[in-house]
Design brief:
Two copies of one chain form a homodimer.
Chain A (H helix, E strand, L loop, with lengths): L2 H10 L15 E3 L5 E11 L10 H18 L3 E11 L5 H17 L4 E8 L5 E11 L14 E5 L4 H10 L4 H5 L2 H12 L8 H7 L2 E5 L3 H12 L2 E5 L7 H9 L3 H7 L5 E6 L4 H10 L4 E8 L8 E4 L11 H4 L2
Parallel strand pairs in A: 3-4, 8-11
Antiparallel strand pairs in A: 2-5, 3-5, 6-9, 6-10, 7-9, 8-10
Helix pairs in contact in A: 1-3, 2-3, 4-6, 4-10, 6-9
């Protein structure tokens, strides 16, 4: 075992749960709760694709956990633990690894998601992380993507577009609209890209009230279309009802084309929920009780011949034409 | 969704089990058997590190599954399914992907390990696979690495060194000893590196008879030392009892230094089992019944002050001195 492997073992051991067997075995043990299903999800993050190689290591670690936590939240699943694949270029310093482990420890504790095991390998390429997260739900109760029904209302949690516009801020800091924002707004957008806010606080409400759910990771509009397609229904979104944070609203005020970036850009890690109308108030009250904002952005329709699978309208009910052609022809 | 993603979805769908929800959800469902523990393991493989980029794609896929299946076998766990992270350089052709999926399908079926889900991402670097495999054991019955006891006998399955010597064959085809082998022998060594033979047929016997178990992936000698250290015991290995295939024996006959390569080289994916002496015959008969060879290679000792954690002796009982210094000072 090299010194680096020793360091990783020492850094990761405190994050490990009891089933991890001190990270000294080939496998971990997870004791499922009686009459529950395991919920399994995996997401990979590659330096230069999903984060910048020079992002703070603790935030890279936390983002890797949070994109998986967000999937568990969307399924109404209680977190149980995670496995980490850590494919590591030779260039990472001991300080970098120490900070990475600290970030992992922080969110593993915050979300009650202990490390169960993993694999560390050398990577003659960019740092690549793969997190497999395990959750559980009472048997048969996982909230699926394919189960939205006509007349359900469509809700999103939190607000949309911070990550996508934060990324644009970062890529084009000289753009006029970036210059037009104040420091607080720029910081809010920057943080929105670096560190998603998964909505695990809402998991019990999701499980009890949502008919269908998924997390918004590839852009709100595209992800609504995915849920509609998977559920064999059609959807209708009111673009003027999509919730934006003050910083996103300010950016859109300065550069109106960013509204489209916000709703198609991705990396939101908010939840998209299809909720029967009679449960909408319970959802609203339950979400308020756990401190998560929810906003109705549209509804689910019976698909009709010739009707697009997703109709996006502005405040006057007029169909919105996206500049990105693919979104005009969902 | 790009054409490539479409192709992957189409290729992978037939490998998916019912809990995979048609690979259309953010997460998969796994229904644990009542009164069982889940056994979780993950292994990453990077092109240029764990396989050659130009290896046949179907064998890369099968190796990725098999290194994980081997961990499940060592734990006495029944396979239940897997998740795949597929970090893909742009250079992979449709033919490559089709062959990869065919290899995955073949072993998923052969080992009853259905695909439950995964994540496909772009990789500006080498092809990187991460497989998380799920198995199960009756509650509390996972065979661990840390539980070997003094007087246990040490067994390995199959034979040792094919992969390590196969790799040498491939790296140094002009070496005299490679030239001295016949085609059948060279092919056997080559295949030994490309495609491990996981011992999942032995899982019930392992679960019932082994006191401790792990798979041999980092070299036999080093892995025995790991088990001894993890179990707070000492070990004794008879080097002349280590089983070699005819091709490995022929290579060692031509180049005696390869004996050391064989027992320290790794990538064997055989099982190392610590078995109480009174269960040794049951293990032998059980293994014979499922067609897996097992060989006693040593035993477990009480650790004594000044005694090495692992004593390796030759046929005359004399301590063997490894040319690789680290192995002389285990």
């Amino acid at each position: 075992m090299s010194g680096e492997d020793d360091l990783i073992a020492r850094l990761f051991a405190p994050i490990a749960g009891p089933g991890a067997l001190g990270l000294k075995d080939d496998a971990a043990i997870l004791e499922p709760s009686p009459l529950h299903d395991m919920v399994l999800t995996v997401d990979a993050l590659v330096a230069g694709v999903h984060f910048f190689p020079d992002d703070p290591p603790e935030l890279i670690a936390r983002k890797a956990l949070r994109v998986n936590l967000s999937d568990l939240a969307a399924k109404g699943a209680t977190p149980r633990g995670f496995l980490l694949t850590f494919a590591m270029p030779a260039s990472l310093s001991d300080d970098w690894l120490t900070a990475f482990a600290a970030g992992l420890a922080q969110d593993a504790a915050a979300y009650a998601l202990p490390l169960l095991g993993g694999d560390t390998v050398r990577m003659p390429g960019p740092l690549t992380l793969s997190v497999t997260a395990f959750g559980e739900v009472p048997r048969g109760r996982m909230v699926q993507r394919t189960t939205a029904q006509a007349d359900d209302l469509l809700f999103v949690t939190g607000d949309i577009g911070r990550a996508a516009i934060g990324l644009q801020c970062r890529l084009k800091p000289e753009d006029g609209w970036v210059q037009g924002l104040d420091d607080t707004q720029r910081a809010a957008l920057h943080d929105g890209y670096l560190l998603p806010q998964p909505r695990n606080a809402l998991m019990h409400v999701v499980r009890a009230q949502a008919r269908a759910g998924m997390d918004v990771s590839d852009g709100l509009i595209g992800d609504v279309a995915k849920m509609m397609r998977a559920s064999d229904v059609a959807g209708r979104i009111r673009l003027d009802h999509v919730p934006f944070s003050p910083a996103v609203a300010a950016a859109i005020g300065l550069a109106p084309h960013l509204r489209e970036t916000a709703v198609t850009g991705g990396d939101d890690y908010e939840l998209l929920l299809a909720v029967p109308p009679e449960r909408a108030d319970v959802l609203r009250h339950g979400a308020a009780a756990v401190g998560v904002a929810v906003t109705q952005i549209g509804d689910v329709l019976d698909p009709q011949p010739g009707m697009p699978e997703l109709l996006v309208t502005d405040g006057q009910g007029k169909a919105y034409e996206f500049a990105i052609r693919s979104f005009s022809h969902l």
